[in-house]
Amino acid sequence: MAKEQLIVVGAGVAGCAAALEAAQLGLKVTLIDEHPQGLQAMSLDAPYFYGARLAAVLDDAATIGERVLGANEPLLECLEAGVEILTGTCIWGSYRPGANSTHLAAPQLGLADGERSWLIEYDHLILAPGSRDLVLSFPGWQLPGVLGANGAAALLDRYQALSGSRMVILGSGNIALRTAKLALEKGVTVAALVEAAPAIRGDAALAAELAQAGVSFHTGHTIERALGEQEVCAVRLVAVDAATNPVRDSAQEIACDTVCMAFGAVPNVELASLTGCRIAFDAARGGWAPVLDASFRSSIANVYVAGDGAGVAEPMHLDPGIAAEQGRRAARAVAAAEGRNVAAEGEALAVAGGDSVLAAAGHWLRSLVKAGGMDVVVCQCEDVTRRELLEVSPPKYLNAGNLKSCGGVGALPPASRNSQDILKRMTRAGMGHCQGKRCRDQVLLLLAEAAGTPPAALVPGSYRAPVRALPLSVLWAGEETDEMRRTWPIWLHPVDEGAPGYASAKAMESGRGEG
Amino acid sequence: MEKADAVVIGAGIMGLSAGYWLAQRGAKVIVLDKGRVAWEASGRATGFLSLRGEQPLEAPLAAAAETLWSTLDERLGYPTEWLPGGRLWVALEPDRLAELRDICPQWQAAGIPVQLLDGAGARAIAPCLSEQTLGGLHTTRGGHANPQRASQAFAWAFRDSGGAIREQTPALGITVAGGKVRAVQTPNGSISTPVVINCAGPQVGLIAAMVGVTVPLAPVRLEAMVTVPLPRLFDVAMVGHGLSLRQTRRGNIHFNGGPHEWVDVDLTGEPAKPGTPVIRNIARRLAELFPSLANTPVLRSWSGVLEVTPDQTCIIERLAAPDGMIIATASGHGFGLAPSIGQAICDLALDGRSQVPIDGLGLDRFAKLDPGWRALRRWTAGSYNT
Ligand SMILES: Cc1cc2nc3c(=O)[nH]c(=O)nc-3n(C[C@H](O)[C@H](O)[C@H](O)COP(=O)(O)OP(=O)(O)OC[C@H]3O[C@@H](n4cnc5c(N)ncnc54)[C@H](O)[C@@H]3O)c2cc1C
């Protein structure tokens, strides 16, 4: 198996800066990025909420490849600096030798492109996977035309494939303002920018600039529903008071073909979590984020996390320099570990503050619940509503209406009640083909509210390989040895003849089955 | 000191089932777990009930479980996703087919109707099977359920009948006096009880050791996976090509098999349950078995740690000394047998003997077991695959 000195995952700002710095310090670097993604991967809303209306051009791999790679200046710089680059390649697994997995020779990553999967070992790993869209639901959110801010940015910018021309943006933090600016630059009309709170949350100067450009701000409003039959044609907004109660007769409709959920972004910790890095709640960094030292080293000595994946603070949405510097620091720490002569770092980078994205999202969610009610779907894949989630109802396909109600979230014993996984097992919210990317945060916020617990006290759902849904034929171990085929164990091992308690050794040998 | 008629150690499906049957008979029962309800093997199993045709000592327990499974949803009041779809073993290779021919008479001898099929016969039951399927062995008996939902159904029904579940409360010790168990010690104090039921899964040996009793057990880590939901393809629990698999009521193919790692467990910690890249080989086997499903996406994988006894057969016993101590472990097929094993435990606790036949499942069968048995079999922690 190939072994790399340094693997950097993610060719965004932080990943490219890390790869370039490491290459310039003389390290052998491999930089891996899942973009350009295939249409099938994008239609699973991973890693972003792209929504259900992807432009036809996305089917044209050559055009998209050119656009996505051509738009990435820093990636081209990395290429010139001798970084080995793998694009269109996702990391779906991360494995390390350790307790109860002692036979793995070295830490390794699982990679896949559209056709096959393979494994690589590494000495050092820098994860720079960026952020994920924080998604909250409202009636009509399943309609084509509804997407997330990260999804919108990717389609507008890198893929140049947003099939829409009139956008309503939900949220007013920096990610919302930035998306509005990008949309305007790309010729998309921003029909409204909506904020449930009484005031704009993000950068005042940028908000003023957008207002100048004609964007109308609807603070103290929430979305009652997205309207449309086949796809979005308008949104219905309603005014809300400071306690998020809808104001009577305040509904208004705004025509649009795109609704962008820019409630916030949270660090994409799936790979850090699979790798075994310690994750802890940190409100200022967007919720559950890896625990890192000043060099962005995780709880595992040779694994680093930089950029939005390390934690998303509000200022980072407007200043890519922060993520880049994090990447460079991680790269210098790796170089130092490899014996390169690296100048001592200056002061530790401050984790820039700003209010918690989860607190803002919590406010939004309360307004959405009041305007839309409890019978709004939270998990699109498995068709679970807010009410079904909190009542811990069995899924609809069981037709278990004649059976008992378990008494809801509140009736679970305290440790089960705090566990997103237990809720997921019982309701299936988060078990579907998007692997929970669209419902994870809303489920946690609803659970926190219902259980009367701060989010920090909840145990978020675990991440499982493959973190991208991969076809059997892709995951398929192509290099499987004859030896493995021959010795593939059939549950369990045959046991020696004469072991006590056997009717006969033969009977046990054929006692295969369970497991 | 808090008092109970019985304390169950372990909120896996076996302990919850035992607690449920006891509470049904009016006993005041507390179930302890060091972690969460069904967080270990019981929430990670494939979900088969095997009729144990190859093990005459267990076949009666399995038959009793089968009868119970068909009534559980109504009895417990919560869905278990029980699907009485029978079982199909399939062979893609001549050696495997020969083995199926060998086990056929054992199952018949156990009174379970089984039928040898050719490849076409097997594909008639599961049309997605590879055209290379050489044959199969089929029984309409047995079935499968959703391990997480079934375990939780027992937990809720236990609670509904007055039982108490204490999560994150490990049993740390057992007080014995005058040859009888008296109390279970936990970090939150002791619970006074005349009956202690040890259903601690892989930790059964560690709990038994608290009262000076040796239970030979080797824990093992296994991996399992699930695909996206598919339209209904088959109802049987299937075994073949190195996998165990079923299609869930939701439609996902849930499959597992392959190399497993022997591990050690400790009394209070959550055992590490890392996945490994072997899921690629497991996935390959599913695609070889069902070539037409090769483009089906895999959604997730997980692993679980379970208990294995030296003869891969259950241990169910009420000890003579100390009195009041009951031991129950099921060697990797405890999910399917849990309904009847729970009843047996309840009988042992309240009546001293079980109506459900458990003869021959006691510890005395290991009297001559070499204390170094794990090493002799290469079942010690870190051994892998062979
Ligand atoms: C991948 C996989 C597939 C399987 N497939 C099948 C199948 O198809 N059919 C089948 O019948 N079986 C199957 N099994 C086996 C089955 O899961 C187990 O036999 C069964 O779940 C055992 O139940 P249990 O309650 O005894 O143990 P567990 O579910 O392991 O529960 C034991 C509990 O005891 C608790 N505990 C341990 N120590 C302490 C302590 N000191 N204090 C308090 N609590 C403690 C643990 O936290 C745990 O919750 C499979 C297992 C795995 C992992």
Write the layout of secondary structure elements.
The complex is a heterodimer of chains A (515) and B (386).
Chain A: E1 3-9, H1 13-24, E2 29-32, H2 39-42, H3 61-70, H4 73-80, E3 84-86, E4 90-95, E5 108-112, E6 117-127, E7 131-133, E8 146-148, H5 149-158, E9 166-170, H6 174-185, E10 189-195, H7 204-212, E11 217-219, E12 221-227, E13 234-239, E14 252-255, E15 258-261, E16 265-267, H8 270-275, E17 279-282, E18 287-290, E19 303-305, H9 320-337, H10 357-372, E20 377-379, E21 384-385, H11 386-390, H12 414-417, H13 420-427, H14 440-451, E22 470-471, H15 472-475, H16 482-487, H17 505-509
Parallel strand pairs in A: 1-2, 1-6, 2-3, 6-19, 8-15, 9-10, 9-15, 10-11
Antiparallel strand pairs in A: 4-5, 5-6, 7-16, 12-13, 13-14, 17-18, 20-21
Helix pairs in contact in A: 1-4, 1-9, 5-6
Chain B: E1 2-3, E2 6-9, H1 13-24, E3 29-32, E4 48-49, H2 59-76, E5 87-91, H3 94-109, E6 115-118, H4 119-125, E7 135-139, E8 143-144, H5 147-160, E9 164-166, E10 173-177, E11 180-186, E12 189-192, E13 196-198, H6 204-209, E14 218-229, E15 237-240, E16 243-247, E17 252-256, E18 261-262, H7 279-289, E19 297-308, E20 315-318, E21 325-329, H8 334-351, H9 373-376
Flavin-adenine dinucleotide binds next to helix 1, strand 14, strand 19 and helix 8 of chain B.
